[in-house]
Amino acid sequence: MTKPKTRISAKVRDAVRLMVEEGLNRAQASERAGLKDNSLYVALRRPEVCAFRTEIMEALRTSAASRTIAKAEMLMDDAESEHVQADMTKWLAGIVGIIPVQRSENLHIHATTTPGLIINLVQPQAPPLMIIDVEASAHAVSLDCNGRPLPIPVPHPSQRAK
Known about the structure:
Elements: H1 10-21, H2 26-33, H3 37-43, H4 47-78, H5 82-95
Helix pairs in contact: 1-2, 1-4, 2-3, 4-5
């Protein structure tokens, strides 16, 4: 059993045509077609009205595609600018499947850079400090942060033996 086709009123058809073909918004199209704006709003949600709108848009696209290709061909041949001629040649070649030569430059130099200031706090890996038994040795050895012994301190001149 097939679903019966739902009828679309002449006013809704006119309003949809005005929206697609003349580019009117819903309020303008409903006013010119003699409908209330809300009535057209509700009608545009019905599947049969959406299908009708899609059908009209497809016919318009087909017509525009023919004119667009003709205009591009005319520009390719007669444009004063060589840049325009080259662009139309590439565009028309792309339609028939000829792929233009692509540049191979890589412009993502700082792809992972984020805005702002980034401070990386890294602790150097130092070997574990040696434990020195002060009582067992005559004098203690001071170590730097890397575990190396510090040089023997030089006494102040006032403390030097005379």
